[in-house]
Amino acid sequence: MTRTIAIGDIHGCLRAFDALLAAIDLQKTDILVPVGDYIDRGPDSKGVIDRLIELREHTQLFPLMGNHEEMMLSVLDRRREPFGWLNHGGHNTMESYGFAGDLSVIPASHREFLESLLPYYESPTHIIVHANYDSQMRMENQSADLLRWVKISHQTPKPHFTGKHAVMGHTHHPEGQIVQLPHLTCIDTYCYGGKWLTALELETQRIWQSTPEGEVREFMLEPVPSPAS
């Protein structure tokens, strides 16, 4: 059976990511959708990108672009001064690459990976985005700014008009909790802040979580009833 598994914001936490991958035991038939923000803040952004590139050989990978990847690419393309990105954790990323003043330290394969990232993932039952969405708009017409930047704590979206359940990251919970509404699930559980990295199997609502040190737990996510039920 094909499993569709979303993974929350990794932010350079390679040890937690590797622990989750080992617990999930990915198969060739599985669909893996990391929601973006693979880099910045945590200790090993380069290692996380290396691992994501490797995963393309082992499973069906549909990685999304987060706002941190957008910032990094805009610096690499010299469309943005680096200071804003560096102040949002970019310095941690550059340290992981051994940066010493020359952007050529970023491998071409990593830049190609970043340029290939997707704006969203949509299945017959779910939509997966990095940050947010317009509930009345088809996914192919969504703005990049909304998909990558707007926190659900600032603008909580209504149910998508298709009736599909939304899964996203970007808005971390300071206590590492999964945020649930009847129509959406946010799985940014603040790994770089010492809490959890979360993976969610969409078909079963099975959860895997890892600490930054690689300690894993599993449980089933209980659905949130709608107000009408």
SSE string, helices as H and strands as E: EHEHEHHHEEHEEEEEE
Overall strand count: 11
How many helices? The count is: 6
Described by the principal axes of the CA atoms, the overall outline is globular
| Beta-strand fraction estimate | 15-25%
Straight-line distance between termini = 31 Å
Helix amount: 25-40%
Widest sheet, order of strands: 3-2-1-9-10-11
Q: What would the average pLDDT be, to the nearest integer?
A: 95
**Biggest β-sheet description:** 6 strands, mixed
Structural Rg = 17 Å
Structural class: alpha/beta
Ranges with pLDDT <50 over ≥5 residues?
none
What would you note in describing this structure?
This protein is α/β, with parallel strands linked by helices and 229 residues long. Helix content is 26%, strand content 17%. It is built from six helices and eleven strands. It has helices at 14-24, 45-55, 67-76, 82-96, 108-115, 144-148, and strands spanning 4-7, 31-34, 60-61, 121-122, 126-128, 165-168, 179-181, 184-186, 197-201, 206-210, 216-220. It has a six-stranded mixed sheet with strand order 3-2-1-9-10-11, covered by helices on one side. A five-stranded mixed sheet has the order 4-5-6-8-7, with no helix packed on it. The radius of gyration is 17 Å and the shape is globular. The two termini are 31 Å apart. The model has no long low-confidence stretch (mean pLDDT 95).
